[in-house]
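Example record used in the benchmark description.
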Amino acid sequence: MSQPYLSIAAAALVAAGAGAAHAGTVRGTIRYAGTAPAPAKVAVRQDAHVCGKQPIYDESLRVGAAGGLANAVVSIEGAKGAAKPATVTVDQQGCVYRPHVQTAAVGATLVVTNSDAVLHNVHAFHGEETMFNVAQPTKGMRFQRPLDEVGVVRVKCDAGHTWMSAYVVVFDHPYHAVTGEDGSFHIDGVPPGTYKVKVWHETLGSKTGTVTVGARGAATFDLTWK
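Model output (C-alpha cells):
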C-alpha cells in the first residue's frame, strides 16, 4: 500500500478513536405518575402441572415502589452510529417469556428456546404481519430467525397460554436500552449533540423529549408518564 493510502487510513482511525473518546452517557429514570394498579395474578387453566408451579402475574404495567416504570424502551434518535447485531434470546420458563422486553440491532439473530416440558406455539408479529409461527412441543427445542427490519416484534403463545407475551424492539443504531425494575436506564457511547429521545411502553404507548450530550460528559434524561 502506498504512503498516501496509509496516511488516509491512519487519519480515519484517529478520527474514529477521537469520536469514541468524546462520546458521553445518557442516564435517567422513567416514572409513572399516580398509583399503578397491582399486577393481576394470572388464572392458569392450561397445563397447570407446568404453568401453575409458580404464581404468574401480568407484566404489562410494572411500577416500582418509588414510581419507576419497568420495561420501557428508551432510544436516542438521530445519533450517528452503526447497529451492532448480536444474538438475542427469548426463553419459555414456567410458561412465561424471559425476558419480557428487550432491544436488538437490525441484523441480529433471535433465538427462541423452550425450557418447559410442555407444548408452546411461538407466534411472532412485526406490526400486524406474522413473522413466524412455530410449534415447540418438547423441552430443549430451539428456533432462530434473523431480525431484518426495525420496529416492534411481539411474541405470543398460541398453545392456550394466552397470558404469555414478549417484545423485542429492533433498531438500526446502538443507542437504546430497557428500563430496570426501578425505571432507571443508561446508554453509553452517545456522540456529543442534542437529540430526540423516544420512550416506548407496551401499554402506555410512546412519549418523546430531548437531551443534550456534551463531550466526554454524562447527560440526564428523566420522564414521568402522566
